[in-house]
Amino acid sequence: MKTKPNVIIIYADDLGYGDLSCYGAEDIHTPNIDRLAEEGIRFQNAYSTSAVCTPARYSLMTGQYPFRNPDTFILPGNAKCIIDPDTMTLPRVFRQAGYRTGVVGKWHLGLGDGNIDWNGEISRTPNDVGFDESFIFPGTADRVPCVYVRNRRVEGLDEADPIEVSYEAECPFDDIDTYEKNPEKLRMLSSNGHNMSVINGVGRIGYMRGGKAALWRDEDLAEDFLKESLRFIDSSEDTPFFLLYTVHQPHVPRVPNERFAGATGLGPRGDVIAELDWCVGELVSHLEKKGILEDTLILFSSDNGPVLDDGYADQAVEKNGAHRPAGPLRGGKYSKFDGGARIPFLAYWKGTIRPQVSDALLSQCDLASSFASMLGVPVKDGDLPDSENHLDAFLGRSMEGRRELMYESESKAKVLRRGKWEYLEPSAGPAVEPHTNIELGNSPEAQLYNLMYDIGEKENVADRYPEVAKDMADRIAEILKSSQTR
């Protein structure tokens, strides 16, 4: 086994456990991603640490449960960077081992110190937390500013047209297109929110003025991020590289490139998943042509579970048909149920990893310690506090993973998975989110499910096994008081 392979993590956005044909989808075909599963490892019990994006991404980067940082909520596009510059991070593990590191795609972990100068050099970018190169958009595709940031500057900005960004409730700019003032500019209607600035015919969250030359086009996001990823790979000829390729699909707004419009029968949501699959195929093909596929470990996963209507009237619900984005799991994005954080996870390393299906219990926050082990990077006490070393499980050399793991819903309610048991702590709030129609799992009662027999979490057995429920509730309390769990 090569001790210093190139490593690529492809990190999808809101892709569910049932959204890929290798996980049982019948109405969406993902042959390129399926290849990773068929020739690598398909994990059936892999989790992110949160049912929403920013907290999950924070854990991937830092090896910490999100509760350790009070700023791990869904961030606006002008938020400060929530990773402390002195924190040990996943890319820093690779840098300490002599790797060249890069991130391309969605960031959504904040920039600067809370007062971002979009027209000059931006402080506290991905380059300050372990990446040698970065090409990102700051927040999400539905949040302003709709621009790329390369390393420390907005890409393609005309100095004569400076960018201004506001997340105030009322628009402070009189001379921009807005959802209320310029409905004739819209090509996609809102179903909830997304009614502030109109950019590229799409309503966004937040207001933005200026920067017209720097605006990206939604249809080009996939290809732009792919091209930048391939450029980073090509510029790393003599050095092993780590690439975090954080694709934006299938997060809203779902605007596929014209080549993929109508590619599936599921509307734009299905089409952007087909587009994502194409991106994966192009990436793998590029590695093959360069002759470095056997020297490259590829991991594929998602930040959290799926959602259909997430604020745009894009017919995701109407055209979904019999497709089950979360597969057999209950809930989805935002939820305490397994559909919120149990995600697709694949590992592919041609010639090294043996094709298999793994039931090992794993958390995305384990990647940092696992790679530290592989590369001989020492982890100091206090660093990567919740990241366990499960390198053998990630590489398919063992079916033994974690004894337990914890994740949280959007509302920060905690869930503990231990073996066959999953415990959902009592929480306030609606049982069903009214806009997304997703079951959130909120209940004043404790919930306990035996996932060995009840993967869909239909039968709450907390009353039948009170000692198990109490022990798991006590363990959550213990974790929340701890400084580390590894």
Automatic annotation (TrEMBL):
Query: Residue limits of the Sulfatase N-terminal domain?
Result: 5-377
Q: Which family does it belong to?
A: Belongs to the sulfatase family.
In Swiss-Prot or TrEMBL terms, this protein is called Arylsulfatase
Q: Which InterPro entries match?
A: Alkaline_phosphatase_core_sf, GAG_Ulvan_Degrading_Sulfatases, Sulfatase_CS, Sulfatase_N
* Pfam families cross-referenced by the UniProt entry: Sulfatase
Q: Which GO terms describe its molecular function?
A: hydrolase activity
**Which terms are listed as keywords in the entry?**
Hydrolase
Species name: Candidatus Eisenbergiella intestinigallinarum
- According to the lineage, what is the superkingdom? Bacteria
